[in-house]
Amino acid sequence: MLDPVSRVRRFNRAVTSAVGALDNSFLGRSRPLGAARVLNAIGHGRSDVAEIRDYLGLDSGLMSRLLRSLEDEGLIETTAREDDARRRMAKLTRAGRREFAAYEALSNAQAEGFLAQHSQREALLAAMDLIASALTRERVTLDEIDPRCEEARYCLGEYYAELGRRFSQGFDVSLSRDPDAKDMRRPRGTFIVAMSDRLPIGCVGLKGSDHGYAEIKRLWVAPAARGLRLGRRLMHAAESAARELGITLLRLDTNSALPEAGQLYRSTGWREIPRFNDDPYPDLFFEKRL
Amino acid sequence: MLDPVSRVRRFNRAVTSAVGALDNSFLGRSRPLGAARVLNAIGHGRSDVAEIRDYLGLDSGLMSRLLRSLEDEGLIETTAREDDARRRMAKLTRAGRREFAAYEALSNAQAEGFLAQHSQREALLAAMDLIASALTRERVTLDEIDPRCEEARYCLGEYYAELGRRFSQGFDVSLSRDPDAKDMRRPRGTFIVAMSDRLPIGCVGLKGSDHGYAEIKRLWVAPAARGLRLGRRLMHAAESAARELGITLLRLDTNSALPEAGQLYRSTGWREIPRFNDDPYPDLFFEKRL
DNA sequence: CATGATATCTGACTTTAGTCAGATATCCGG
DNA sequence: CCGGATATCTGACTAAAGTCAGATATCATG
User: Fold this and answer.
1) Counting C-beta atoms within 10 Å of the first and last residue's C-beta, which end of chain B has fewer, N or C?
2) How far apart are CA A140 and CA A154, in angstroms?
3) Which residue out of B13, B128, B145, B201 would a mutagenesis test of the A interface target, given it has the greatest number of A Cβ atoms within 10 Å?
4) Which residues pair with A45 in a beta bridge?
5) Which pLDDT belongs to residue B257?
6) Residue span of the structural domain in which A13 resides
7) Which CATH number covers residue B272?
8) pLDDT in tens, B212-261
């Protein structure tokens, strides 16, 4: 009665019968689901018609008709793309923005209503994060971003907080060598964030230097996204970027209180080397020649 | 970017777009979704037509047509109910059972495939249990069952395992006063299990005795179902059953290593009394007059 | 047994989603 | 500028789901 398969199936049943209740914001504004989905995709910043069609899995004929019906309602405008007049871009009109906001408000209200009904908020949210990450694993994208932007700062904040929990002596970022943002931007280095459906769930920094090697810094994976081999993917992306930038030697430091990190490095061609800096936190040092 | 509402909405998006992938067993046998859902409802033991219609939320006309199409395929038979010939009962034919088994096999295979893709199996399953319990909270039923049946034995096994984890000295059921099964069956007592979509998620025993009081025993709530006030509901049901049985005084013992239990008792009209037995595990004793 | 309520069934209808074969306009490489 | 490729649009179609008003049979009750 309690084998894993039954548990997965019970979850499926619960979710399929509740998902309508969880979010039926697509209904409730007397517009067919298809049109509502397209309107929401546009509202969420997708404008390329082919991309929306692909994202929603629609036939081109159907997509065309849905766009037309939204246009007839006065909610969107479509224009040919400047660089390729075969392709079309869609954007919301003022009325469309109002309508989109109404959908968003409905959806938010339903999510709030759901949360308000349940007492174990944090446990529930953590479980939801874990499942959402597992389900969207295939769709995790690795994006190079500026280390000072919101997503990067969020990741770094979580990373520092986790070090604080895991190091017995805590962690004070001001005592560590805080890398200069420009060392983690091209052409000296880069900063890569893993995004799952607009939520940052991991990051890694490649920090250029003038010492004949670059460093891997700030490798972090959100607790809800562990077990998806995301650390490996991030490291792989960072090493590829390093190769592109003509870097031939990589180093990193880590701490034995983070055993999963050490294991990852060892299993991906890094070899342990003696201490190469005077940062107070790390006690393990690695190097990899590209 | 990470407020609770966004997290709930991300989960919704992930689940709605993945639920097809999680279980599309309803497709894949060239039968419309509606008919497949009815067939599966019947296969899962629902036979009353009105009940199925209510469960699946179908219009009576539509339901009638779906039944007819399944009958035409030779998968079900319907008969008038003996006690009320207006109502109809549906049951699977031999061919229907084969077809249902094929759906079950598909669904199991998909659940297995899903599990095989993911490395953090236990964490994922625990998260799924938690969410399924939260979503189906409204539909938890409290059933009186025999304490020796499978569901009861499962609950007791989990209960003992949890005591073993939480008591610093471990827990050996043979050292504790194991109540006689017949003391937890009517008319001396009862055993109540909380079922969520066919999964037992909590239990409580009411044990009759000849000492002028009855005892509450084995109050347990599955970790995935905590925070839903299920303990309270179980206790309430046990007390109601005790009143029905003419019991006027209830006692129970517990351990200070289970603080949430003590808190529950105190907040529901129980008062602490001196030790009333020589069981080695409990160190807290309560009484309630009905 | 007459009467109103109830459960199911039937026929006629609408809406939505989806499919597919072309039509049209534009792009790109030679 | 030509010819094949590409993006979108249009028309004609189907399948599925759902709605609604009655028809029919049965039940409960006085």
Assistant:
1) N
2) 17
3) B128
4) none
5) 87
6) 4-117
7) 3.40.630.30
8) 999 999 999 998 888 778 999 999 999 999 999 999 999 999 998 888 89
